[in-house]
Design a protein that fits this description.
This protein has a two-stranded parallel ribbon with strand order 1-2. The longest helix is centred in the N-terminal third of the chain and has 9 residues, at about 15-25. With about 100 residues, the chain is mainly α. Helix content is about 35%, strand content about 5%.
């Protein structure tokens, strides 16, 4: 796990944690962290929320380079259970609102 999928894990390499795990082991790996939202979970708790973020093209570019094999989506999917369908169909994604997570408590 990592806070931001789009951050390099080590200086001098573009790979994130999932990329390093897959490179070193040759096994499938998963990336997580801030997919579809503008801030990591700890930052949004500290700052009072996160906004929707279209960082999906960047995630897909890294996925297509085989940096990782799987992608874990958390808050964006919890916010809108149809998120994946909307993404697939090219529909606009809703603005992220952390108040939707209150329904889970």
């Amino acid at each position: 796990s990592q806070r931001f999928f789009d951050r390099a894990e080590f200086e001098g390499s573009p790979l994130n944690l999932g990329g390093w795990a897959q490179t070193l082991t040759g096994k499938p790996s998963m990336t997580v962290g801030g997919i579809g939202v503008s801030k990591g979970v700890y930052d949004s708790k500290r700052d009072g929320g996160a906004a929707a973020s279209n960082n999906l093209p960047q995630m897909m570019e890294r996925f297509q380079r085989h940096e990782f094999s799987l992608v874990g989506v958390g808050r964006a999917l919890l916010h809108d259970p149809n998120w994946v369908l909307k993404l697939r169909d090219g529909e606009p994604l809703p603005e992220y609102d952390e108040s939707s997570l209150a329904l889970l408590t």
